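Quick start: read one record
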Amino acid sequence: MNIKPIINLFGVLLIAFSFVMLVPFIIGVIYSEDNHQIYIFVFIIVFAFGLFLWLLSRGSLKEIRITEGFVITILFWFVLGMIGSIPFVLSGITIVDSVFESISGVTTTGATVLTALEDLPKSLLIYRQLLQWIGGMGLIILVVAIMPSFGIGGSQLFKMDAPGFDSSEKLTPTIRESAAALWKIYIGLTVLCLISYVLAGMDTFDAVSHALSTVSIGGFSTYDQSIGFFNNVYIEIVCIMFMLLSATSFSLHYYSIFHGKRLKHFYDPELRFFFLVILGIIIIISFYYLIINNLDLSSLRYIIFQTISIVTTSGFVTGEYSLMPGFVPFLLLVGAFIGACSGSVGGGLKAWRVLIIINQAKKEITKIIHPSAVVTTKIGKKVIDASISEKVWGFFTVYVITFIMLLMLVLSSGLDFESAFSAVGATLNNLGPGLGAVSENYGSLSMMTKITLCFAMILGRLEIFTLLVVLTPAFWRR
């Protein structure tokens, strides 16, 4: 393995991340906050260190190999979580809680250890939202778009870090153009979301803050009550609309916007399945509420919002969903395991993997009934190659094993099963709010449990395999 490309690109990534600190600094100045100097301090330190690393290894590469791509991607998410925690530490939050909050932000999980958010400095609040926004599409993808200016190729990093994106299907002739196109869509959605929130009744600061976390499907809010604080149906409609847009494959948005294929969304089998899952859960919960004589317009509004928020792994709430009656909270949590569409910024297994698993199961049942039949796995009109089905089943197997191992670790801390199960599920699927002891925040958990869940959040953000591959001896023998 060549260490120089890793040092070189890592320096570029740190330089890019350092500029994030300027936004909370400006907010701190605007609102005359006493702690705004900490962001300039962190900016100078991170920028200087990144520049030093880049100059140290300048001109050492033209194209990154897959080995270096894996290492840089993983190293960056871990180190970004550590560096991102510095403003929290300097604001008086413990180191472990600061790292947890930072990693939760950059992985767009939305699990928080903080309370009384309304009393926190606005500079720190906007910083939390920015962590989610840059983590949503991935800072690495932004850097890939500008890499040629540094004399660096970025195809391997794009494959490693594009959130659920099928790197075998190029949107544009070059990786740089693909990364730039994705960021244009991402920024465009953010601006539209911001404007929509203002028109719906939010003030400018809240609109900016929630636009950043809505489009990134992060779920951080500036209030402990989350979206429920506003109690505004128009704000909830805006939130629902942009959660769904961000949970949809960005490649569909690309073809619709840049190639004029306006109806491509309607013919996509994965998107149809994703919406059917959401609709099915809404119908089941509504029917249950009807049975217990608790269904009215207010509860239906609550059901629709919570279902879409949890299934898309956004994690916004208009009430404590863990207090919903009967099996409903667990049904919503199961929906989060399915998650958003591939190529989106959402978490979970991804709808297309679940769709392949279901179709593969149907195929096996058909073969049992008709042993001589030749049956293929299809999604829509597309025949799914057997190798893809094998990869999906392999991923699912590793996912289940990883989940069980993490669950055992969290249970060993003494946490009850409901809280432990939901905490692992909510962090591994980058959802955020859980059930039981973690329904409101994760502040009461032990230090080791928080560290375990930090690892789970990064595993979920990297879709498990990227991180686990580096832990195998075979990888280091390449």
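The longest strand covers residues 377-379.
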